[in-house]
Design a protein that fits this description.
Elements: H1 11-14, E1 23-24, E2 27-28, E3 30-31, H2 42-55, H3 65-85, E4 93-96, H4 99-114, E5 120-124, H5 133-142, E6 145-149, H6 159-164, E7 170-176, H7 188-197, E8 202-205, H8 217-220, E9 224-228, E10 239-243, H9 245-250, E11 261-264, E12 269-271, H10 285-301, H11 303-322, E13 327-330, E14 339-344, H12 349-358, E15 361-362, E16 364-366, H13 371-376, E17 382-386, H14 393-410
Parallel strand pairs: 3-15, 5-6, 5-7, 7-8, 8-9
Antiparallel strand pairs: 1-2, 4-10, 9-10, 11-12, 13-14, 14-17, 16-17
Helix pairs in contact: 2-10, 3-10, 4-5, 11-14, 12-14
The protein binds pyridoxal-5'-phosphate.
Pyridoxal-5'-phosphate is lined by residues 98-100, 128, 130-131, 176, 180, 205, 207-208, 228, 369.
């Protein structure tokens, strides 16, 4: 292994993840599936268990100290998220279940009340299903039109084509910051500026960007930004919707219930202010605490350092993968995050996945919830290896050995 190429000794982070000492099919776990969900460091699990053991109570409504403490931790977490993505105000941070719920919230609360049949939403070919289906539901509910930005053969967003998709009926641009299949990092700042020149708001799906690189929502100048805690080494079931305050203020609630109201009578309900208006019911308080701990954790490494670490692994992996006869990487444009998709001639991705599994290596094989992108590249599936803070060149070496084995078995 050549650790000399790494700027920081990332092995210190590896020790924080007990699961990496476990086995998969009797072999040491090599975890290359962080794009699906990242493993959890001890610090995150400790924060959640400490909260349950020492500070737990329901939030906002309690008139006793424990509840005040839980509320303080919950609201401090909102502040930490705000700082992490460089939002202007803590009120712009809404706790949701994940990226999927954040996008559905915007579609139903921003889009549905104000759009009509024939209005248009611009998406791209490289979207995850969770940034397609919520808009498709609006197409069914309202008769809106989905317009799709093409992707080049290298896996880049076709910006020239994007500019031509705008019309007087365009109501929203919703695109991914980084592709979960190709790894492509899209020029979202430029795309937002083009949309704004047409007075069109922009939603960015940050699920695959936030774990891999620094994100500044004010610099991008997006109107909405969504991501999931579980891909950022945090708990499942918690995520973030960022929205510019004026937009969130103008939107009706997404769900009704406790905690999102000011007053309730059968004749009239008044709602709490942003962001409580969007957080109906008892939220995932422990998830929020765990997400804040995950943010502290990645910030202790530094997002720029994490990005550089994954770039080094990409540079280490790509030439070795391409040296495997018949292997083709899907998505070669740069910049990209630490996600590599590939196919091998005459071996189905699922067969590759099975061989890797038996060697202890966890990767994804499938359509990765991006069926339109598979169709674009005329492939049924890819194998996807994705990197996180705990991966190193040994993991890439193990992947390579297993791919050569697959080649011998099936090729
Ligand atoms: N968007 C992208 C780009 C993703 O990769 C994913 C998850 O794989 C999602 C959205 C959906 O995230 P979640 O299932 O956490 O809501």
């Amino acid at each position: 292994m050549n650790m000399k190429t790494l700027t920081t000794d990332f092995t210190v982070f590896r020790r924080d993840f007990p699961v990496l000492q476990e086995t998969n099919r009797g072999r040491p776990v090599i975890y290359l599936d962080s794009a699906a969900s990242a493993q959890k460091p001890r610090q995150v699990v400790d924060a959640v268990s400490n909260f349950y053991f020492h500070d737990y109570a329901n939030i906002h409504r309690g008139i006793y100290e424990l509840s005040e403490r839980a509320t303080r931790l919950y609201e401090q977490a909102r502040d930490r998220v705000k700082n992490f993505i460089h939002a202007a105000h803590a009120e712009e941070i809404v706790f949701v279940r994940g990226t999927t719920e954040g996008i559905n919230l915007v579609a139903q609360s921003f889009g549905r009340p104000r759009w009509q049949a024939g209005d248009e939403v611009i998406l791209s070919t490289m979207e995850h299903h969770s940034n397609i289906v919520p808009w498709y539901l609006l197409k069914e509910q309202l008769g809106i039109v989905l317009k799709v930005i093409p992707v080049t053969d290298e896996g880049a967003m076709d910006i020239e084509a994007y500019e031509k998709l705008f019309s007087p009926r365009t109501r929203m641009v919703a695109v991914t910051h980084a592709s979960n299949v190709l790894g492509t990092v899209n020029p979202v700042k430029e795309m937002a500026s083009i949309a704004h020149a047409h007075q069109v708001p922009v939603l960015i799906d940050g699920a695959q960007a936030v774990p891999h690189m620094p994100v500044d929502v004010q610099d991008i100048d997006c109107d909405f930004y969504v991501f999931s805690g579980h891909k950022l080494y945090g708990p499942t079931g918690i995520g973030i919707l960022y929205g510019k305050k004026a937009l969130l203020d103008a939107m009706p609630p997404y769900q009704g219930g406790g905690d999102m109201i000011e007053t309730v009578a059968f004749s009239k309900v008044t709602f709490a202010k942003t962001p409580q208006k969007f957080e109906a019911g008892t939220p995932d308080i422990a998830g929020v605490i765990g997400l804040a701990a995950a943010i502290d954790y990645v910030q202790s490494a530094g997002m720029q350092q994490i990005y550089s670490h994954e770039q080094i692994l990409l540079q280490y992996a790509e030439p070795r993968l391409l040296a495997v006869p018949g292997l083709r990487i899907i998505g070669t444009t740069k910049p990209k995050v630490g996600v590599i998709s590939f196919v091998m001639q005459d071996i189905h991705p699922h067969d590759i996945g099975t061989v890797l599994d038996h060697e202890g290596i966890a990767v994804r094989a499938g359509h990765h919830c991006a069926m339109p992108l598979m169709e674009r590249f005329r492939i049924p599936a890819t194998v996807r290896a994705s990197f996180g803070i705990y991966n190193d060149e040994n993991d890439v070496d193990a992947l390579m050995a297993a791919l050569h084995l697959a080649k011998r078995l099936f090729g």
